[in-house]
Amino acid sequence: LVGTALCIVLALPSSSDDPIHLGIGFPRHPTRSGHPKGMGTPGKMEPTPPSPSPSVAGSNEPTHDTASAASSNYGGIDPEVEENLYILPYVSDEGLRSDATDRRKIIGSSQDDYYPLPADFSAAASAETHSLSPDTSCRLLSLPSELIDAILAYLPPCDLAIVSETCRSLQAHATSDVHWYQRVQANVPGTKLETPYPCRTYRELYAAHDPRWFLPKYKIWFCDRDLMGKMIVVRYDQRRGCIEGYQLLAVSNRTTYQHWPADNSVIIHAFEPRVKLHLDKPVLQFHANSLEDNDSTGILGNRFLPEIPMVIDDRSDAMFSNFLMARPLDPAIATSRMEAPFPYGNVWPPPAIPARHRVAGVASGLDGDDLAPGDLPTRRAEASDQAFRIRQWMEMAGGPTPGLFLGAGPVGLIQAIQANMGMVGGRGVPGVHIGEEVVTYSTLDPVVYTPTPLKPWRGIWVGDYSGHGCEFLLINQPDEEEVSDEELGLIRGVDESEDEWAKRRTDARVHRGRLEAIKLTGDPNVPRGEYTFVADDLGEAGFVGLAQEPPFQGTRVVKSKGHVAGTGFLDDKYIESQLMLISHDRLAQYWVGFGHISFFERVNIEEFMSP
């Protein structure tokens, strides 16, 4: 058995022997020494003044530092050489570190498109009984049937189920499929329900997947596994009555390069991404008929289980998964933990990503023993609908119980090989667990990634990271206070038409405020959950000019800061860059020190919601 485990460990790829050549980051140098194993802390020096862009009207010639040798794909400092990290000029990182309060972003409960957990969810969870009025008469029944149905339409599913147990008259209303169709439909965006298959009614269908309807409702989920993470799209397939989540992947169809006419030393990296789901291997899957044993009496009969096994179709790779509910952290505790440097006390999502609440994550390569009892919900009211966990492991059936075995692996550590005679993925077969780990997933609130007329770049994007391949980003444009025309310096011209005036007023408000690009998936250098670039102001304070030469002619260019780091997110720093606002669906980032331009494109998640 130990020999088999050794073979598994030895077969794993070694990142130190095979360095990865990166587009924006730096591969590990085999002889590097003198650096701590944790995240490095760069020294505080005066930031380098930004260089003007050769692409804009009125700018001077570029002053790139090209002292170090550059590969053919870069016109400036070669980012594929680890030591170049230390000769790059860097800019101020004020407001971008973990101790900056504006990074601990909390979405307020005033948003009306989402029903957050009650502020006193822990207190609500302790109420096991419902108080009843001494008056046994029900005035509701005196209303016309249509009004009763209209009132019941506002009830949450659990309350609707409670109403169905009060009397026969209300049971007829509350169990009607008219109401339960609406409850299911509200949780399956992108799908027009036509059948409750394999259940007889929509009420049975809702009960079969309760309390996991939040998974397809919020669609987008990203995790904390290693530095790279993973992004999945969860949807409902009514052909089979199942909820399933697949990893979202992207590849670029073009790998060509061209010189920038504005500056022949700058290389433009062509980018035509193709985004798809990895349909051959579900990350999570729930079948309605697989939950029948847990639902004999409807929703109220469901016994709350914080951890359940997932039976995934065609799983032939000896991998097993359990689904775990998560409990929100107290806001004060979450804030305190996030004061620490990366990985910010293992809080998920990390501080750069706006969230309504956060949960405790688990360090990569560790199993659920790292979770405190308070991190796990014990009742429905304690469970988060913004996060969940997946426990996964590889299983070897049979064999004696081995001792503790440690070894290196892609998750950093195979913590143990141990016999587990209890829960084994619902298969009922005793086996040996190898590489058990717990991965935490969180969603994005629609408020954050839904574009508006004044915040048109909000959304999910995919970017070109050269040797790293494609990575997914959240582009966030924080809301700002409204300003008047006078504050923006706008004065209507005498001969200006209504349309021209309206357009100029809108443009002044669109090109204003901060734009943040935050990684949802990462790489060995700059991990998931970190800023990849930030433009502090799209308005006059950050305005560089309008590009004069193709292929960016007429494009607005603003100052930005690009995030780079050594392998393992060591010695991260921000360097000078410029953001080109090509359109609301396409951006370009000019990495000044590297002498290259990379592209980013919007991802339409709705394309992946229909099976």
From TrEMBL:
GO BP term, pick one: protein ubiquitination
Keyword Transcription included in the entry's annotation: no
Keyword Oxidoreductase: no
Involved pathway(s): Protein modification; protein ubiquitination
Biased composition (Polar residues): 54-74
Residue ranges occupied by any F-box domain in the UniProt entry: 137-183
Keywords linked to the UniProt accession: Ubl conjugation pathway
Species in which this protein is naturally found: Colletotrichum incanum
PROSITE patterns: FBOX
Residue segments, region Disordered: 19-76
The name this protein goes by in its record: F-box domain-containing protein
